[in-house]
């Protein structure tokens, strides 16, 4: 039997197979020649001390122990062309993984996506970056794969109690992701690789008899006696089914408005909002690794920070080492930022959302909108940013120290945000209470991370789509909406997930509940 070891080694040993084998041989007190195979099971970086270490969990096979490489296999997806149909609105991770789970259950998914396929989206991303044109149905948030496809592909989640994280990771590997995501403590696919994986998932759904409809926006629900009967699209078509998984993501404001208009119960949900801060990656490396030069054996350094400021949580969100900032508006007349990294994380800058927890009481100026008050609060800030930036997709920007001192920055260096920046005093973008919390918070960040507070760091505003401003409730047991039978609110847009993995898990959970309602199970 192979033995399992927990190791802490230098980055050079972790990156060099020969050195690793020599190190393991010393630990198990055998000759290096007797070490047949060292399989890395888990890997993480420990930068808490000045000498950075890599934590490894490994299986060690000696020369007389057989090692067989484990290849990830996809489930046996059967053809469901003539099976019971289930509608899925949204082709993000929640929708796509719900579709795969339905196929395993012997049900036929009909995936309806307002945006374009994963390749077609690229033209619209170019349009928003270069021409400042926002396509309301195809952008960084809407389209095949959802918001994560072209905004990073980070797979880290704290939602391990919600479902089987390893199952989702293995499915992604089965569809083409690198097996490293099964090993890394903070797995990441990257925006350059994720589109092909998403395309392969879609092709599998179609191959098995499911339908995927692009550029098809849902404009109404067909409901009879408080039971779901189907949807109506912008083309006037009716698509019928008694079960509907609503997985539209955190930015589908028209769906929230439709639910509210039809008196289907929804509620305002607190979320977080702030700015996206960009530093030189070299600076973050020096801070986090306590070194002058990162070297060849360490990845670009991330950071994570949380502070309580004036009774509110202020924290880093969706941190992107070696990444860029992207324009993520979903309608004309608004500015929204987000960040992403390619798989190699090899860009010159690091960026992170720095956001503040909001409370329901903050939405009181928009109380007349009822459950949509938080959404209108969010929208008002995005629209204000658009006006301040000259009614373009340029982003209001300010140097970090200047922001804390209420000084308009005399100049803004070129940042990774392609549409460009406009020097603005950030207090004009946000309500006064939020501005003050962020000013105090960045001062606290500077005390906690020496070197973080610098005018080399540029703040971009706003980072406003951290999570849904609305919750669509559901029964804890059936996962159905308490008012509409057959409606399954799902994923980030419904307020039950936050990120690719947790959304995928939630999609599977909803599919399994639908299977139970049909008395189906996976054999």
Q: What report would you give on this structure?
A:
- By secondary structure, the protein is of the alpha+beta class.
- The protein is built from 12 helices and 22 strands.
- It has helices at residues 11-15, 17-28, 93-105, 121-131, 165-174, 194-207, 253-261, 281-289, 373-388, 400-404, 432-448, 500-517, and strands at 3-9, 35-46, 53-62, 85-89, 108-112, 211-213, 218-224, 227-233, 238-240, 244-246, 267-268, 272-280, 306-309, 312-320, 324-327, 337-340, 349-357, 395-399, 421-423, 458-463, 470-471, 487-489.
- The strands form 6 sheets. Strands 13-14-17-12-20-18-19 form a 7-stranded mixed sheet.
- The radius of gyration is 24 Å and the shape is globular.
**DSSP helical segment count:** 12
Structural class: alpha+beta
Rg over C-alpha atoms, rounded to the nearest angstrom? 24 Å
Strand order of the largest sheet: 13-14-17-12-20-18-19
Give the averaged pLDDT, no decimals.
94
Brief descriptors of the model:
523 residues, alpha+beta, 7-stranded mixed beta sheet, 5-stranded parallel beta sheet, 12 helices, 22 strands, globular
């Amino acid at each position: 039997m192979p033995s399992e070891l927990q190791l802490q080694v230098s980055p050079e040993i972790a990156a060099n197979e020969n050195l690793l084998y020599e190190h393991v041989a010393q630990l198990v007190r055998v000759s290096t020649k007797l070490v047949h195979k060292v399989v890395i099971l888990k890997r993480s970086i420990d930068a808490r001390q000045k000498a950075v270490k890599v934590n490894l969990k490994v299986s060690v096979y000696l020369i007389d122990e057989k090692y067989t490489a484990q290849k990830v296999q996809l489930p046996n997806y059967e053809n469901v062309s003539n099976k019971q149909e289930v509608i899925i609105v949204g082709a993000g991770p929640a929708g796509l993984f719900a579709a795969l789970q339905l196929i395993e259950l012997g049900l036929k998914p009909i995936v309806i996506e307002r945006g374009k396929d994963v390749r077609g989206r690229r033209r619209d991303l170019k349009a928003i970056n270069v021409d400042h044109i926002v396509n309301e149905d195809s952008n960084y948030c809407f389209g095949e794969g959802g918001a994560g496809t072209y905004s990073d592909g980070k797979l880290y989640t704290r939602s391990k109690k919600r479902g089987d994280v390893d199952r989702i990771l293995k499915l992604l590997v089965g569809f083409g992701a690198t097996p490293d995501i099964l090993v890394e403590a903070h797995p990441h696919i990257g925006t350059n690789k994720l589109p092909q994986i998403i395309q392969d998932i879609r092709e599998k759904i179609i191959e098995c008899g499911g339908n995927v409809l692009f550029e098809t926006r849902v404009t109404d629900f067909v409901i009879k006696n408080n039971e779901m009967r189907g949807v109506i699209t912008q083309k006037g078509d009716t698509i019928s089914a008694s079960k509907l998984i609503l997985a539209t993501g955190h930015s589908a404001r028209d769906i929230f408005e439709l639910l509210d208009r039809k008196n289907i119960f929804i509620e305002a949900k607190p979320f977080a909002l702030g700015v996206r801060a960009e530093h030189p990656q070299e600076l973050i490396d020096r801070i986090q690794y306590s070194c002058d030069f990162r070297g060849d054996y360490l990845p670009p350094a991330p950071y994570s920070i949380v502070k309580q400021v004036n009774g509110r949580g202020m924290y880093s969100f969706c941190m992107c080492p070696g990444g860029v900032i992207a324009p993520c508006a979903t309608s004309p007349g608004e500015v929204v930022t987000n960040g992403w990294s390619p798989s190699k994380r090899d860009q010159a800058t690091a960026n992170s959302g720095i956001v503040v927890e909001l409370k329901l009481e903050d939405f009181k100026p928009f109380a007349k909108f009822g459950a949509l008050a938080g959404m209108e609060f969010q929208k008002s800030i995005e629209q204000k940013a658009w006006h301040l930036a000259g009614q373009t997709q340029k982003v209001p920007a300010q140097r970090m120290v200047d922001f804390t001192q209420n000084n308009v920055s005399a100049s803004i260096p070129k940042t990774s945000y392609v549409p460009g920046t406009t020097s603005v005093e950030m207090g004009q973008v946000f309500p006064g209470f939020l501005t003050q919390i962020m000013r105090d918070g960045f001062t606290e960040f500077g005390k906690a991370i020496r070197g973080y507070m610098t005018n080399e760091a540029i703040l971009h505003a706003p980072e406003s789509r951290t999570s849904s401003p609305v919750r669509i409730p559901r029964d804890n047991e059936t996962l159905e909406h308490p008012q509409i039978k057959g409606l399954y609110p799902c994923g980030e847009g419904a307020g039950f997930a936050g990120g690719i993995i947790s959304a995928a898990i939630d999609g599977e959970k909803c599919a399994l509940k639908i299977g139970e309602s049909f008395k189906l199970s996976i054999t």
